[in-house]
Structures are given as C-alpha cells and as structure tokens.
Amino acid sequence: MIFTSSTKAIPAVSKVPRHIAIIMDGNGRWATKRFMPRVAGHVKGVDAVRGIVEACVERGVEYLTLFAFSSENWRRPQDEVSLLMKLFVTALEREVAKMHANNIRLRVVGDLSRFEPRLQELIAQAERKTANNTRLTVTVCANYGGRWDIMQAMGKLLAQGMPPPAAGPLPFSEEQLAEHLALSFAPEPDLFIRTGGEQRVSNFLLWQLAYTEFYFCDTFWPDFDGAALDLAIASYQERERRFGRTSAQLEQGE
Ligand code: IPE
Ligand code: IPE
Ligand code: MG
Q1: Are residues 106 and 140 in contact, defined by beta-carbon separation less than 8 angstroms?
Q2: Which protein residues are within 6 Å of ligand 1, measured from CB?
Q3: Residue 206: how many CB atoms within 10 A of its CB?
Q4: Alpha carbon of 123 to ligand 1 centroid (Å)
Q5: CA–CA separation, 183 vs 65, rounded Å?
Q6: Angle (CA) 143 147 153, round 5°
Q7: What are 123-137's pLDDT values in tens digits?
Q8: Which of 27, 52, 76, 193 to mutate to test the pocket of ligand 1 (most atoms within 8 A of CB)?
Q9: How many angstroms separate the alpha carbon of residue 25 from the centre of ligand 2?
C-alpha cells in the first residue's frame, strides 16, 4: 500500500486537492443545443481536456483522473462509438509529445483489450514515454467501470492463489485488494466533479470514492474551464472532511 486508505487511516488533507476525478459529461447536449452533431461536442470536449490539464498543472494538482468512456458507453449508436475511438487515437497522436514536454505522466486504465490494436499500441507507447514524468499524472479511464475494476482486482487475487491469510474472517485484506485496483498508483480522489447536470456516479470509481468530496455543476463539459475548476476547488475548500470523526475532534487536531 503506497497511499493511505481513507477507511484504515485518516489521510492528510491539503488546501488544493491532490487528486481530482472528473466525469466529463454533457458533450452531446452541448452540441445538440447548437444544432450540431453530437460528435462536434466530443471534439470540443478534447479541447476542454487540454485546458483542464493546464489548469491543474498551474494549481499544483498532482493527479487528474478523467472518465472518457465507460464500460456501458458501448451501448451507444455504432457511429458515435467509432467516432469516439477515432478521436481517442487522434488525441493521443497529437497531445502526447506536448504532455511529455510538460513533464506530465499519462496513464490509461480500463479493460483495454476491447480496443483495436492500433489504439492499444498508442496507449502503451504513450505510457512508456511519459512513465517517469512527475509534475502531474493524468489518468484516462477508458472502457472503465467501477464494478469491472473491483471484479478484475478480485480476479487477480484469485489468480495468485490468494495472498497469505490476513487476520479476520476473509482470506485477504482491504489493502491487498486495493493493490490490484486500476488506480493503485494514485491516492484516493479528494474531489469528484461531474459536469453536465446529472447527479450520479454512472459506475465510475466505486471503491476509490469512499471519502471523496462530490461537486456537481450544470456546465456542459466543453464549457468547463479554469474558472469553472476554481469554483469546484473553492467549494471543496469549504468542506469539513471528517472521515467519520466529529467536528470537535477536528478542531482539537485529533
Ligand atoms: C460525455 O458526454 C462524453 C462521453 C460519455 C463519451 P455525453 O456524450 O454523455 O453527453 P450528453 O450527456 O449526451 O450530453
Ligand atoms: C458517464 O457519462 C461516462 C463518461 C463521461 C465517460 P454518461 O453520459 O455515459 O452517463 P449516463 O449514461 O448519463 O449515466
Ligand atoms: Mg452523458
């Protein structure tokens, strides 16, 4: 376990969220409102990603995790799915060199086996190239689902023939499971943002959001900029993160 588990120990809390996780929602509605095809919203959405990555670097955020394509998004019309895949390929082709020059590490998590080989290869190359960068870790969740994540982590534990027995009723501990989750290289998110007006988790990081602060806004993702991010961070800074304790305990510095 590299990072504190919020249910096992109380994590350090900093003024600027160390890890922000975002459901980038509202691309389709952004386009429809303008009488444009939905894909135009996805194209604009890539520009918004670029802006938010820059804003996170400027604000000293260490981890930015973006939900780009869920395990349920395959249910969309075939043309939209294939356009999203093409967009993913071009975004990787265009953006990775710049990210590398800016000392940004890129990770892509999810069940990547369902993607075409060219996309899988680009992902592997991008991860290799940026592996040692330290300024910001950008994680793109692609064909990701929170349930998939927990299931695949369990699968890895089982494949290992289970770790040495832990104390307690189960043959493994929470930490042993967490080590196999897709985001084991990052601390748990401090701040969760969902744009586009819906207030649900849509099978995003189910395990990792245990003590994350939630922020919902109506802004469609293509319009989400540095100023919108600052509003989310300001809201975060007003929260009292108690992790199960009382306010009085926090005031006493316990
Ligand atoms: C989010 O925007 C992007 C993806 C899910 C790929 P949507 O495409 O869900 O946009 P809305 O919610 O239909 O407006
Ligand atoms: C969640 O958005 C997934 C991504 C942003 C990638 P959706 O638009 O797919 O979520 P639902 O279907 O409204 O719950
Ligand atoms: Mg949506």
Answers
A1: yes
A2: 24-29, 69, 73, 84, 196
A3: 14
A4: 22
A5: 9
A6: 90
A7: 999 999 999 999 999
A8: 27
A9: 6
Of 68, 19, 57, 49, the closest CA to residue 184 belongs to 19
- d(C-alpha 63, C-alpha 66), whole Å: 10
**Under 8 Å CB-to-CB from 14, ≥6 apart: which residues?**
190
Cα 23 to middle of ligand 3, angstroms: 9
In the structure encoding, which two tokens stand for residue 86, read together?
A: 């093409």
Residue with CA at minimum distance from ligand 2 atom 14:
202
Ligand 2, closest atom to CA 67?
6
Identify whether the C-beta of residue 126 lies closer than 8 Å to the C-beta of residue 52: no
Domains in the chain (CATH in brackets) are: 19-149+187-251 (3.40.1180.10)
Query: What is the sign of the dihedral through the CA atoms of 225, 91, 190 and 217?
Result: positive
Global confidence as pTM: 0.96
In order, the DSSP letters of 45-106 are HHHHHHHHHHHHHHHT--EEEEEEEETTGGGS-HHHHHHHHHHHHHHHHHHHHHHHHTTEEE
Is 113:37 a contact under the CB 8 Å cutoff? Answer: no
The tens digit of pLDDT for each residue in 186-240 reads: 999 999 999 999 999 999 999 999 999 999 999 999 999 999 999 999 999 999 9
